[in-house]
């Protein structure tokens, strides 16, 4: 990578870890972190930070053009649960920023874009098991609708204007570096904090609900490998399925109990259960495997082990 890269939405769950990994690989000064927060979080202080509101189209355009940015990772978004509470804002935030960045690339100001999609693009009419890359897609959430629309626009900008935009349909992401916020799959992160803090957890998803999940290290590696893949190898310009590991809260609990034997879980499904019920249980990512040699490395036991060793409950207080 030669020119500078900006990560927009850098303070979120994916952004924090992505910035750190990109800086480790390319040098701290090459990777600009940006978010709507006034000040840079301590974890990202090893490199440049700029406050940017992704909805302020002119400021984003000026910054990218004036600073000769070549690549953008656009992560600012409202996730599934929050977007259901604020549908209009969810749609606005998830779509407007994407157009700002796609247009900059169309005008020749950017070389490459990464934009995240999600398993939320699928809906109740999608085959639930081993969901194929190309299938029925009728999402019923605002988040899912915005992600599916975004995918169609990404492919359109690629086909019509040659914009090099790349995307992954992330499953639920599990990490300890920073907290997730506003997602349906967040239970699979919360559970580790509460297991350590209180030894018990009240889960907002029912015990038998299977959802596809992935450890963050795998997700960051997938993101960077996709961005580094030769353009000619990529047959998907909407968004690639990414599989990961599928498990239920009950299965996750059993594995946590191998380390914290008196950990207990109770279930109180809320509105997020209805969202989860519309999503796939497992994902077929064979197209990603074929096109850019994707291979995940973390299995559930390893993921639980690394989370229990590393979650730091002081992070809950700093939020
Ligand atoms: C959410 O739960 O909203 C996200 C996602 C699966 O995209 N984690």
Layout of strands and helices, then pairs:
Elements: E1 4-8, H1 13-26, E2 31-35, E3 49-51, H2 57-66, E4 69-74, H3 80-85, H4 87-106, E5 112-114, E6 117-118, H5 142-161, E7 165-166, E8 168-170, E9 172-174, H6 187-197, E10 200-203, E11 211-215, H7 216-228, E12 240-241, E13 245-247, H8 249-259, E14 264-267, H9 271-277, H10 286-292, H11 300-310, H12 314-318
Parallel strand pairs: 1-2, 1-4, 2-3, 4-5, 5-7, 6-8, 8-12, 9-11, 10-14
Antiparallel strand pairs: 11-13
Helix pairs in contact: 1-7, 2-4, 4-5, 6-8, 8-11
The chain binds 2-amino-3-ketobutyric acid.
Please list the strands of the largest sheet in the order they lie side by side. Answer: 3-2-1-4-5-7
Report the portion of residues in β strands: 15-25%
Per CATH, the class of the largest domain reads Alpha Beta
SSE sequence, one letter per element = EHEEHEHHEEHEEEHEEHEEHEHHHH
Unreliable stretches:
none
Provide the residue-averaged pLDDT. 96
Radius of gyration: 19 Å
Largest sheet: 6 strands, parallel
Structural class: alpha/beta
CATH architecture descriptor name of the largest domain: 3-Layer(aba) Sandwich
For the secondary structure, the number of strands is 14
Question: How many structural domains are formed by the residues?
Answer: 2
């Amino acid at each position: 990578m030669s020119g500078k890269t900006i990560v927009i939405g850098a303070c979120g769950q994916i952004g924090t870890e992505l910035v750190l990994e990109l800086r480790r690989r390319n040098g701290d000064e090459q990777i600009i972190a940006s978010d709507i927060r006034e000040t840079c979080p301590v974890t990202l202080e090893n490199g440049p930070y700029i406050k940017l509101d992704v909805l302020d189209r002119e400021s984003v355009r000026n910054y990218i053009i004036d600073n000769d940015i070549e690549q953008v990772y656009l992560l600012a978004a409202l996730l599934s649960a929050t977007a259901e509470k604020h549908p209009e804002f969810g749609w606005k935030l998830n779509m407007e920023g994407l157009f700002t960045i796609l247009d900059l690339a169309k005008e020749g100001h950017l070389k490459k874009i990464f934009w995240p999609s999600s398993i939320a693009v699928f809906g109740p009419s999608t085959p639930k098991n081993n969901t194929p890359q190309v299938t029925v897609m009728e999402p019923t959430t605002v988040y899912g609708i915005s992600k599916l629309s975004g995918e169609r626009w990404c492919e359109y900008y690629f086909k019509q204007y040659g914009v090099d935009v790349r995307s992954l349909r992330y499953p639920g992401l599990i990490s300890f570096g920073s907290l997730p916020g506003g997602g349906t799959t967040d239970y699979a992160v919360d559970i580790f904090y509460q297991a350590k803090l209180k030894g018990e957890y009240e889960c907002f998803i029912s015990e038998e609900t299977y959802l596809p999940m992935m450890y963050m290290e795998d997700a960051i590696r997938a993101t960077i490998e996709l961005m580094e893949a030769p353009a000619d190898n990529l047959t998907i310009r909407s968004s690639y399925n990414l599989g990961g590991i599928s498990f239920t809260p009950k299965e996750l609990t059993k594995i946590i109990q191998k380390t914290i034997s008196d950990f207990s879980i109770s279930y109180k499904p809320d509105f997020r259960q209805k969202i989860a019920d519309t999503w796939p249980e497992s994902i077929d990512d064979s197209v990603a495997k074929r096109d850019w040699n994707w291979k995940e490395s973390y299995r559930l036991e390893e993921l639980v082990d690394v989370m229990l060793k590393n979650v730091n409950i002081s992070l809950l207080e700093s939020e």
